[in-house]
Structure formats: C-alpha cells, structure tokens
Amino acid sequence: MTIENFKAYAEQYKQNLLDDVVPFWLNNSQDLAYGGYFTCLDRDGNVFDTDKFIWLQCRQVWCFAMLYNEVEQKEEWLKCAIQGAEFLLKNGMDPQGNWYFSLTQEGKPLVQPYNIFSDCFACMAFGQLFKATQDQQYAELALRTFQNILKRKDNAKGQYNKLIAGVRDLQGFSLPMILSNLVLEVEHLLDKTLVQETIANTTDTILNRFYKKDLDIILENVGIEGEFVDCFEGRLVNPGHGLEAMWFLMDIGVRNNNQQLIDQAKDISLSLLSYGWDDTYGGIFYFRDINDKPPLQLEWDQKLWWVHMETLVCLLKGYLHTGDERCWEWFEKVHAYTWQHFADPAHGEWFGYLNRAGEPLLTLKGGKWKGCFHVPRGLYQCWKTLEQLIDKQEKTNN
Amino acid sequence: MTIENFKAYAEQYKQNLLDDVVPFWLNNSQDLAYGGYFTCLDRDGNVFDTDKFIWLQCRQVWCFAMLYNEVEQKEEWLKCAIQGAEFLLKNGMDPQGNWYFSLTQEGKPLVQPYNIFSDCFACMAFGQLFKATQDQQYAELALRTFQNILKRKDNAKGQYNKLIAGVRDLQGFSLPMILSNLVLEVEHLLDKTLVQETIANTTDTILNRFYKKDLDIILENVGIEGEFVDCFEGRLVNPGHGLEAMWFLMDIGVRNNNQQLIDQAKDISLSLLSYGWDDTYGGIFYFRDINDKPPLQLEWDQKLWWVHMETLVCLLKGYLHTGDERCWEWFEKVHAYTWQHFADPAHGEWFGYLNRAGEPLLTLKGGKWKGCFHVPRGLYQCWKTLEQLIDKQEKTNN
C-alpha cells in the first residue's frame, strides 16, 4: 500500500464523520422541548417517532462527549452531550438506579429495566462525559452503574427471565463482549485490580468459552461450562458481534502490550469474516446456524450497517497491529461494499438495513436500534487507525 | 364460474391435504420415543431440532382430532392425536395449570407460561379430542383451560410484562381474535350464556376497537378505549391476522344467521387484502405501518405461508356467503401466487417463509412457529367451502 492510499481512505472517513454524519445528528435529533434525542429519523432526517430508547440516548451522549474529548473541543458538541445526559439523569432510572429500556418523549418510563444493556451504555456515556466536564456527579453515576452491572450480571433479566432454571442454562456473548470494551472506557474511574480482573475474566470468557477452536467460530450462546448446546440459541452465529468483539480484544492487547492476543483476535476475525461473507451478493450475513440448519431469525440474510462498520474497524486494527495483508485485502473489499450500499450522500448518514441483495429494506437513518453510535464511532476509529498506518508508513519510508 | 371450475379447485385442495400434507406430518413428526411431535422439519421432513413448542404440539393434536371427526375416522389419525395429548397432559402444564411455552424432547419444561396463547391452543386441542373420544378428562381439561384464559386475559403476561402500567396501555388484537374462533371450537363444552357473551364481546372488540372505519383497516394494537396510539405498536398492521379474523367472524355470522356481520367481514377482508398486497412482486406483506413509517419488524416485506392460506379461506367463505365476485377474482389471484410459491410437490408440505421476491428464505417445512396447523386446516376449509359452492351451483342449475 502506498501512503497516498491510506491518506485517501483517512480523508474519506474523516470527511464523512465531520461533514455528514455528525451534523446529521446534531441538526436533526436534538429534542429542544424536553431534552434528549429523537432517534427515529427517516431518510432525510425528519422525526417519525418520538419514543426515547435508553440505549440510544446513552450512546449519543457518549458519542458527542467522545468527539469533544478526542477530536475537537467544540462547544456545540459538549452542549449536545450534556443536554442528553441531564435528560437521562432526570428520567432514565428507576428508584433502585436501574436504567429503563425506554421513555416517552417527555421522559415518562415506558419499558422496565428488563436487562442490563441500558446500564452498560449509561455507564459508558457518563464515564466519557466526566472526562469532558470533570463534573464529579457524572463520575459517581458511571461508577455506581458499573457496580450495579457487576452485581446484576449473573441474573440480568431478573423476574423477566422466561427460561426455567436448571434445564438448559445458557450464557450469552453480549455481556462479556460489552464489558471487554466498557472496562477500558471507564478505566479512569475504576481501581486497578478491578480493571485487571475484568479484563482477564472477559478475555478468558470470550476466548475459552464462546470461541470454539474446532469450528474457528464464536458462538452467540453456550452452556455454563462453555459447552456447545444443540438448540436454536446454541447453534446461532452472529458474525458481526464476533468481529466487533475482536477489535475490543485488540484494544486490550494494545493496552497490555500483548501481541499474542492481538494476533489471535486477528486470526479469529478473518475466520468469522470468511464464514459470514455472502459469496453470492456480497456483504456479511446477520445470522447463521453453525450446523447450517434454518435459523430462527427471519432477518438472517439481511445486511446491517453496524456489522459492516465494526468489521471495517476490526480489519484496519488487525492490519495496523499485525501487518497481515489479508486484513487489508478484506478491508478494501468490505469498504467497497459498505460505501456503495450503506452510505447515502443524497441525505446524509447511512442506511441501516439492506435486504440480501443490498437494497435498502427500510430507508430510515435511525430507529429503535440504530442511533448516533456505530457509524460515527466506526468512522472515527477507521480514520484514526488509518492515520496510524500513515505514521507507520512514514516512519518506514524515512 | 362453472361447476367444473369449483370441482377442479376442490380436488386440488383435497388431494394436497390427504395425499401430501397429512402424510408428511404423520410420517415425519411423531416422536415414538417420548411422545408428542417434532415440528422442526427440514425440506424433506428430517428433524433438525427436537424442542417441543406447546403451541404447535396442541395445534397438531387439534388437527388430527379434527380430521378424524370431520373427514374420516382413521385409526392412525386418532392415535396420532391421542399420543400427543397424553404427552401434553403429562408434561405441558405448570402446577397451577398454566401451559408452558416449550419443553425439551423428553418433556422437561424449558420456557415459562409467559402468555396465554399456549393455553388457547391447548383448549382447542382437548375440546376437539373430546369430540373424537368422548373421554371426559379431555373435556374437563379444555373447560378448565378456557376458564383460566378468561381469568388471566386482562393480565396475560403477568410478571413477564415489561411495560410500565398507566403510561401507554395498549390492547392487542391476537387474543380477541383467537377467542372468536375458540368459542365456537369449544361451544359443546360451554354454557349457552358464556358462549353468547364471548361471541358478543369479541365481535364488538374486533369491529369497534381494532377495526378503524376511517382507515378501513384493522390495527394490531390500540389504546384501552380503542383509540389510535401513534407509536410503533399502534401503527402496526398485520394484514394476515385481520384476514384470518374475518373468516372467524364469517363463521360466527353463519352460526348466528347474521348476514350483516358476514357482509361487513367480507368488505373488511377486501380492504385489508388490497392494502396488504404487494403490487410489485405479488403476495401479501407480513407487516405494514399505517402511516407508511418504517416498521420495527425487519421481516415486514416477507411472504408467510399462513397469511396466504388464511386469506384463501377468507375469500372462499366470503364468496360462498355473499356472492361478491371480487372475492372470487382475488381468490384466483392469491391461489395462483400461493400454489406457485409455497407448495413443494417435490418433498411435500409447504414452504413457510419467502423473501419479498417470492424465493424461499428458509427451506424448512416446520420450525418454532410453523407446524401441522395452518396448511392442513386451510386446505380442509377451502376444500369444504368449495364443496358448498358446488352444491349451491348444482341447486341453481336445477
């Protein structure tokens, strides 16, 4: 690769982030009446539903605080993050400090805290916002929420768990995956031992429970000892989930100066990607069944924005830290598919949901599950990783 | 239409039922080791998952008992129904008599009774089986389950309800719809007043709460007073659900000799069908948003077997009881689409899930939600309705 190559890509990711995606959310999503954000935005940014989903509220706080911290100290970015955070502080939690799943536009609670993913994204948001403001109440809330997650994590659904205990106990990949990122996100708030322990636990869980050596694949649900369970949930593979987790592990590898971990995460990524890739139409499948049985998910063959974005981040980090040329080849292939099908230069932001053939299935830019998160975070990560590749190349050239 | 027309169609439905679909389930689905049925069957009938979903277990008991009662007293049909019923009696209920959602192959409970749809299908199954056997324990269980449904119906999800009460209370279409059919199914077990009340209530709820005159559409969720609620759930339309309910209402109309009810149900059916029809690829959409906003359901544009089957039943009954030629025209159009895309003469039974363009998205013949129910029930209903059309035509000709 020439340095010009890297520079052109870096410019594309940076420009899309700063000139397109960030303004799209800044201008269209803020609720100036009640605070917080509208995330249900149609193709050109108009609001089509006013409910407020805590995951996405928190993720947008995180995103604007992160941009303020890492890209430029723009007042409007910080203001956007703070107004969302204040809305959340006022309305987001039940009396026990558990984060609801969703609220009305005005902030009334709609859906109970039936799992702890809202809490994970709240912790991430307030941890990042503390960095921007040094406001101690944000730090305390992030820390309290983190401790609550650890407390609740083995029975995260509580009364809402429909499974009968002891018959077929499964553990899911989502929580260890999120924790492996969250622990670095809020490292500045935690004591060293807890950080080391959490890193060690989540890394071990991901690599020794969910990653299956014989299959060279990460499963979405495994038994309590990590064993394969032959049922719909146990056979499920979500390649995008695994690819996202692999760049979280690479970040841990960089932090801990653990090249072996980075190499392993890169190898697993390449395996997941070639397993998840649709050779007929291009793009990465949303779900597959490891035994090629029919999956439960009717959306299994769709192509989702976050899957592709997280894969791009993963491939660039893999290339930067290992030099494996297959990462770069795959990056160019996934980049071409992604920008051709997801980006929307006409109206800004990205489409979220494509059918198997790559046509938009829904033309929304945001909804119940897509908000201001994967696209801007991924663009930022790709841009910065490409800059590191440029630096590295410049050093090699000199 | 000529009488030969009707006869050819009647023969097609009858033959597919008796020579293809019924043997498919009889031969492939019975679990001779533990009792009950495998419903996860791939294209050629091989079992790909052994979990037992109570909805589908009950529906298959109902189906074979109904065939025994209505078509022919075949010993193997009754045996098939009874062995499933005995498995359910032994394993299907919690200590309070609520029906679980699913069991392992051996019959251990896997998923709690988190709503009352399992109970509805259990009631239907045991009510029908009582007709075949006159075994009093089946009648008692059906009756007890019916009473439990009425008791639980206003708080059907119990502790599993994630919605916060009093903020945005909605009522769903599924339960009144199912009750409007169930009450006729188990009429022989209920006292007259309860039957009349239930018929009156469900008919009123469907036509005056869920059916919206101004839109000429049935909504899937409405407010407590039947008002439109502008949120994802409130905007949702499931055309197949509405069409299925309309033939339930026609059956009530026939029972009560209420031509006005039949006419209205037929008119609503035609409206729902033209609203739900995909003018580009043919077939009926699974979901739409009444305001043309993006629906939550990523599977919204898919074509599902039961939607098409229930529509065929509805159109034939509408035609038989009203003579509206539009019913027959639509019947021929939907019939052509359905038999071209869903039927599978190579391996038997029907495909369940097609993508928008009409290609099988999953090649399974049964799964977690598709079992021995809509196809055989619909084939039977169409066959018998076509026979009534033949009779009627013969009388007219004489």
Automatic annotation (TrEMBL), chains A, B:
Keyword annotations: Isomerase
Keyword set includes Isomerase: yes
Coiled-coil spans in chain: none
InterPro entries documented for this protein: 6-hairpin_glycosidase_sf, 6hp_glycosidase-like_sf, AGE/CE, AGE_dom
Pfam families: GlcNAc_2-epim
GO terms of biological process kind: carbohydrate metabolic process
Gene Ontology molecular-function annotations: isomerase activity
Family label: Belongs to the N-acylglucosamine 2-epimerase family.
Record-given protein name: AGE family epimerase/isomerase
Record organism: Sphingobacterium zhuxiongii
Lineage, uppermost ranks: Bacteria, Pseudomonadati, Bacteroidota, Sphingobacteriia, Sphingobacteriales
